[in-house]
Write a structure and sequence with these properties.
- 2 copies of one chain form a homodimer.
- Chain A is 42% helix and 13% strand.
- The first copy, chain A, has 110 residues and is α+β, with helices and mostly antiparallel strands.
- The first copy, chain A, has one domain: Winged helix-like DNA-binding domain superfamily/Winged helix DNA-binding domain (Arc Repressor Mutant, subunit A, Orthogonal Bundle), CATH 1.10.10.10.
- A 3-stranded antiparallel sheet of chain A has the order 1-3-2.
- The radius of gyration of chain A is 15 Å and the shape is globular.
- The first copy, chain A, starts with 13 loop residues before the first helix and ends in a 13-residue tail after the last helix.
- Chain A binds a DNA duplex (30 and 30 nucleotides) through helix 3.
- Chains A, B: It comes from Planosporangium thailandense.
Chain lengths: 110, 110
DNA sequence: CTCTTGGTTCGACTTTTTTGGAACAAGCCC
DNA sequence: GGGCTTGTTCCAAAAAAGTCGAACCAAGAG
């Protein structure tokens, strides 16, 4: 029962993946998972209420970005790297590599 | 006057780029522009009303994805390939390369 | 069985996006 | 100047996303 359903990447449109990664919170989660290989759900973005966290993880899962392993009452989340890279070559690496714009101040009319 | 403003890619967060590309219509536009180098605004997604088209092009422009050259009353849109690849290595190519899920029918329980 | 823990689901609400009509602006041609 | 073509802006309505309390469920501990 505890099995979690994930889509076959062949059925996932790129836009869905992009969409999933286009949210700061989710991207942060993905990055955290990226270096660590697997993470217990509750260890991600602990600041936010669990309903919100659960929601974001669901979006990632349904976009085929993550895999969820159920262990007891816990969920271990990991990236579907190989598969992802087979279907969308270079996409995940490119996103993970991307640098953030060093917290630009309100940049008042230079 | 006629000059169109575009953001410096250093100020654009990846999520903004992903967001811009995460829309089917916009991605289609980007793909069209990709093979052709430059396109007159009105030659893109002609089915939709111009207000909508204009809106999508604005989103792409503000996400730093496209460059707009004004010629008379027309706007020629092109991709900011080099810049984009300098800031987000491999991202655009990966997105342009991505295959679409061959119009899956309602895939009734195979 | 009860309590706790880790997470999901429901429902409501807020914020963003998307969409597109209508009015407007600018360039071009006569 | 008019009239036509391109495209933007304004505005409002509709749809989609994000947020999160509260109720709920399943597994493990005692």
């Amino acid at each position: 029962m505890g099995e979690v359903t994930e889509p076959a990447l062949a059925d996932v449109p790129v836009t869905a993946v992009l969409q999933a990664l286009a949210d700061p919170t989710r991207l942060r989660m993905v990055r955290t998972i990226a270096d660590g290989g697997e993470r217990l759900c509750g260890m991600l973005e602990e600041q936010l209420p669990k309903a919100t966290r659960s929601h974001h993880l669901k979006v990632l899962r349904e976009a085929g970005v993550t895999h969820t392993r159920v262990v007891g009452t816990g969920r271990y989340v990991s990236l579907r790297r190989e598969e992802l890279d087979r279907h969308f070559p270079g996409l995940l690496p490119a996103v993970l590599t991307a640098a953030e714009p060093a917290a630009a101040e309100k940049r008042a009319a230079v």
